[in-house]
Please model this.
Amino acid sequence: MILVIAGATGTGKSELAIELAKKVDGEIINADAFQVYQELSIATAKPTLSMRKVVPHHLFDFVPLNEDYDVERYQKELRNALNEVLSRGKTPIIAGGSGLYLRASLFDYSFSEKPREIDESKYEAFSNEELHAKLEAIDPEEAMKIHPNNRRRVLRAIEIYEQEGKKKSELISMQEHRPIFDCRFFGLKPDRESLYEKVEKRVDRMFEEGLVEETLPLIEKYGRSPHAFQAIGVKELFPYLDGEISLQEAKDLIKKNTRHYIKRQDTFFAHQFEIDWVDGIQEILEAL
Model:
């Protein structure tokens, strides 16, 4: 059986996953869309190197910051990781809060297997913003999922519409989306107000641990276009760098955006998965 530790950011999924892995001879697989990236550790609240040494961890810290990464690639790599862990007789424990990544990988979402050579020539004169606006006119649902700077994904979604005569979001919605693995979902869901207090302290701690000192050199090195820089904790620093807000205002904005993200996560998990909500590991062990 595959175990999934899901839930909102800041609930302690990483710590619980490690504790559970020690009990069930498990290995942990990442399900956070930004923790796949190298270098960016504090903003993404990546498990520390010492935490990752306790039990094997997979799909963390392996994608270069200037490289695009999406749900289609994650689906393939998660399934490969599951097969690898299961082949050794270990228990896979998937931990993370990126609900779309979990659903697309553990349910029967299919992406086109047909190789697509994207003809960029007719769109060369389009800026990233103009190209994204075109996709928004064609397929607003899909456009919401893709950052305007991710030009290749925007082009691919446009091309799917041009070749198939149907929107990418429509093709995905036509799939039945049944589970394809024997999974058991568990989630940590503390009281919303106590979680908000925990997040406030977590953001303060991120700044104390060197969020600005880690992030600013990366922005100087890679610019502002990498998709990884859409992570909460990074994108809020841009207006600070431009002199539009103070560092304290940037910190407050990170806290505000994190609270909004928690609300979206709670809504998604409540409607997309059958989750056993627990207070800690003992309830999980009893359920198993």
Notes: Residues 37 and 65 are 6 Å apart (CA to CA). The beta strands are 2-6, 26-30, 57-58, 91-95, 183-188, 275-278. The two ends are 10 Å apart (CA to CA). The chain has a mean pLDDT of 90.
